[in-house]
Amino acid sequence: MSRALEFWFEFASTYSHVAAQRIEAAAERAGVPLVWRVFLLGPIFQRQGWNDSPFNLYPAKGAYMWRDMERLCAKHAIPFRRPSRFPRNGLLAARVALAAEREPWIGRFVRAVYLGNFAEDADIADPKRVRGWLEAAGCPRPDSLLERAGSGEIKDRLRARTDDAIARGIFGAPTFVVGGELFWGNDRMEDALAWRS
Amino acid sequence: MSRALEFWFEFASTYSHVAAQRIEAAAERAGVPLVWRVFLLGPIFQRQGWNDSPFNLYPAKGAYMWRDMERLCAKHAIPFRRPSRFPRNGLLAARVALAAEREPWIGRFVRAVYLGNFAEDADIADPKRVRGWLEAAGCPRPDSLLERAGSGEIKDRLRARTDDAIARGIFGAPTFVVGGELFWGNDRMEDALAWRS
Predict the structure, then answer these.
(1) Residue A120 above 80 pLDDT?
(2) B197 in contact with chain A, both atoms CB, cutoff 8 A
(3) How close B142 comes to chain A (CA, Å)?
(4) What DSSP designation does B3 have?
């Protein structure tokens, strides 16, 4: 039995969109159990002295990233449209994903939020939108899940999750973790899934 | 006939080592003419407000990179040892590479400098070392090439080259350029070689 692969993602992250659309099917093909690990990049970037996405702070890097995303999504047949706002506030979606992390429909929900952000130019902070994605994903009680997502317990767990990311040396998204081994970026998904030693 | 691929590299860059060891054989296999384009990242980083490598400025990113380099070089069977100094001063080697860019032995020289930096922990700013790598690469007159590398003409051309990198939107190394299309990072080499439209 293969060791589990943890998929650490942040809803505002462009390359996490590409990875999120691919990871569930790829892990299944590889026979690797998948563990969803939503977290927030904002507090990590702030510790690095950034008050915005590095793609906004460094314009050449940002211009490249948007073009690279177009090519990459075309290559993988993943829907993509550059959003009118970047980065979007993914806090609500992250709390919901944390509350639902072990549900069998979590993959469908995560993919729907990313498609909202990076293909449909939707406001992922809008509770009505999030509720719709929950319903479409197969969540049996969207309203009670949304309520739980706003609880102190989930807020605390999301803060602890992000502290855990920092403690493990995570500095960007997506990051794959296998055993103690970190793999950063959608480009490393295949290496992470194949990691054995 | 395929369009040429420009390989933009900086001798202090870790991931350029991986790309430099692979690019000549990969371009040959793909039937893509290869154009060597040495440049300096220092002035580009300074414009972004960095006075050191981002791998030193952001320790989590740096710790990850060194581990990633170990895994990546093992995967590609490329010699690698973490150097005792990083980043090393690649100015002399860059001037020499610029003076020799169209020589048939340029690939051997570039690979030797990278192996010096990232496998042998050698000082790539040492003229004796650089002379040795020139000789081993097949340069017929290493002394006159070293003299030319120190000329005002080459110094000016290296400055213009780095300005050209900035004008094209290059912000890191390695970068591959095909037509007007930029591909950043060793991970994008295959996509760059396959780029057609």
Answers:
(1) yes
(2) no
(3) 38
(4) P
